[in-house]
Amino acid sequence: MKWITRERPKIDRLACPWLIQKFVDSEAEFFYVPFDNVIEEAKKLNAIPFDIPGVEYTHYEDQCTFDYIVKKHKINDPAITVISKIVRGADTDRHDIANESAGLWAISAGLAHNITDDAKLLEMGMVIYDALYSWASHLYHQKHLQNSPFENLLHEVYVKFLKTNKTEKKKVPSWVNELKEMIQDQIDAQFTFDLKKISTDLELNPSYLSREFSKYFEDLNFGDYIRKIRIEKAINLIQNSNYTLTEISYLTGFSDQSHFTRIFKLHTGENPSSFRKKIAKSNSDTKGK
């Protein structure tokens, strides 16, 4: 089968061909053309268009095309589950999703910069994703220090040092309070967060911010902390307003009510409608006493 997408691939448009060829169609052929020509060329070649707006194989909500292929073709492989998060984080600039996302983006962007021939770029991408798959299959839990007794000894000394200084008061960097103010400002506004933009505003490297964030924000990564804040805002609106649940999902920054319901239940153990009924019943019982 033939597959076609827009030219100059970096993340999804290299990862998806690898996934398709490995799990969906081993004889697949891939074509890269200018964005405006994808649909027209797809008809001429009888090819499946992917990773462009308005086609079946594309992004859905916070998921990228790689995620859709996994779901569509029911690819049940633990290593692919690991790689999906890395690809999604790299492709959507949400490096908090997986530690490896920033590295995958850096390597992919560097390759695209060095290699101007998309066919050669795809060939190199296949090698990279084969390596990533081997790592996710066999080496996911292995640390680099395990292979070096000397480095492992240094690591043990460092850990002991951290333990002895654990009781010392941690100095909070100035950017932490500045970031807290940014998040607070968003609570009653449009409630949108862009880690890359925030990093620019704070004059910090996105990878550094993603890595250091959890130290100062309740041991949560950026995405989990923002979701927690959104749910806390939603709870407040359910308790103290007459907004519908659809309106509340919009006001708290969720893309749709089903996504809101899923995240709300994940955090509270019950869906928003049940939570609202419980609050209403509690208020009714209080008034009746």
Automatic annotation (TrEMBL):
Organism of this sequence: Flavobacterium chungangense
Domain HTH araC/xylS-type: 177-278
UniProt protein name: HTH-type transcriptional activator RhaR
Keywords linked to the UniProt accession: DNA-binding, Transcription, Transcription regulation
One Gene Ontology term of the molecular function aspect: DNA-binding transcription factor activity
Underlying gene: rhaR_5
InterPro entries for the chain: ChrB_C, Homeodomain-like_sf, HTH_AraC, HTH_AraC-typ_CS, Tscrpt_reg_AraC-type_HTH
Pfam families in alphabetical order: ChrB_C (PF09828), HTH_18 (PF12833)
